[in-house]
Task: inverse folding
């Protein structure tokens, strides 16, 4: 894939799932000429209708009607993780490409079914997070590619919060199988690590939890307790094919960390990388022999990007090529996370069976340039 280019025609998108996350997609869809939103559906028709009322040219329909619609090219799957595979498979069976919120599916077994069905149907699978396409991760990627830290040796990825129940009115699924800090937030970090350092070949993990129940801190269920049926503190070491070692620290138990969300260390320098849950942020370099950290100029990635840019990138990807925020990367990240948890349970290292090509870098691209660029 070369530099992403404008699709010949806007990709017509239908959204299934009209929960809180949809607002971020809608904001960016209005800015992206590559995408035309045509329909929305939700198990709650009122929520779907509210979106249609606020977005010109969009109709609220049932899930079955959306899947059958001739004018929907791609289904954006914003359902809960447990439903990701089922909705994706139905969309693929209807002959539509699909782009999902993370993770690709609740398990690698389900994700395999999705990718196999897509190959058979000749449609494309994309998956969040597309934060890796923003200027934060991509500027760090360029610094590595330009040799500013020499050969990468290691990375640390840190995500610490005392728990989503403190702010989320319905946090139950975070503490059930398929939830937890690694599967919830890990896709941002693992996708960034693969984008920066390449695929993972083996992992070893350990995990624990401190409480058997959590108390909801806001909303109509405030004070209600929910059971904890997963490990809420996970650590892991990822061995990359390049030989670099990444250390994960993902917690719903600890309170706060002063450590950067991502650090990359090489033989000639170290990088502080912005939060991979965000699209931008400063990249800092401490070069061997330097006296202080240096903030690098923004040099790569989609400028002023946000959720939905991965779909625009998919729309501009040549047929037969894997999108940068594609199913192969999402599957590899899911297998890495699932294997860290399996290793924590068994006490043994786990070999990663899948691989994913390190996605091609994103040149520094403004929104206007992205829309106007034409394939040469």
Result:
């Amino acid at each position: 894939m070369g530099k992403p280019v404008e699709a010949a025609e806007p990709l017509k998108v239908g959204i299934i799932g009209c929960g809180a996350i949809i607002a971020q997609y809608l904001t960016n869809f209005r800015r992206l000429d590559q995408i035309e939103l045509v329909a929305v559906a939700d198990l709650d028709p009122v929520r779907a209708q509210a979106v249609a009322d606020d977005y010109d040219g969009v109709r609220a329909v049932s899930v079955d009607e959306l899947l059958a619609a001739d004018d929907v090219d791609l289904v954006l799957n914003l359902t809960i993780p447990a439903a990701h595979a089922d909705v994706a498979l139905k969309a693929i069976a209807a002959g539509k490409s699909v782009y999902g919120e993370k993770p690709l599916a609740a398990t690698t077994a389900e994700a395999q079914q999705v990718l196999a069905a897509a190959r058979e149907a000749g449609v494309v699978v994309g998956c969040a997070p597309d934060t890796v396409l923003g200027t934060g991760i991509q500027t760090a990627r360029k610094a590595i590619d330009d040799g500013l830290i020499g050969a990468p040796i290691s990375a640390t990825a840190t995500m610490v919060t005392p728990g989503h129940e403190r702010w989320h009115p319905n946090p139950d699924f975070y503490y059930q199988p398929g939830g937890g800090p690694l599967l919830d937030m890990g896709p941002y970090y693992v996708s960034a690590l693969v984008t920066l350092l390449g695929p993972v070949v083996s992992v070893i993990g350990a995990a624990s939890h401190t409480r058997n129940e959590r108390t909801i801190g806001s909303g109509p269920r405030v004070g209600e307790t929910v059971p904890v049926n997963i490990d809420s503190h996970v650590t892991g070491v990822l061995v990359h094919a390049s030989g670099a070692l990444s250390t994960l620290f993902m917690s719903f138990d600890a309170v706060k960390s002063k450590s950067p969300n991502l650090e990359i260390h090489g033989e000639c320098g170290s990088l502080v990388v912005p939060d991979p849950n965000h699209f931008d942020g400063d990249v800092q370099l401490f070069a061997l022999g330097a006296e202080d950290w240096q903030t690098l100029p923004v040099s790569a990635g989609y400028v002023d990007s946000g959720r939905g840019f991965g779909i625009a990138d998919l729309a501009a990807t040549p047929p037969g090529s894997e999108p940068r925020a594609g199913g192969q990367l999402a599957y590899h990240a899911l297998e890495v996370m699932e294997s860290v948890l399996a290793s924590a349970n068994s006490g043994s290292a786990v070999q990663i069976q899948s691989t994913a090509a390190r996605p091609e870098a994103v040149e520094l691209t403004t929104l206007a340039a992205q829309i106007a660029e034409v394939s040469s």
Remarks:
- The longest strand covers residues 152-160.
- The domain at 132-295 is CATH 3.30.360.10 (Dihydrodipicolinate Reductase; domain 2).
- Residues 1-5, 368-376 have pLDDT under 50 and may be disordered.
- The chain has two domains: 11-129+307-326+354-372, 132-295.
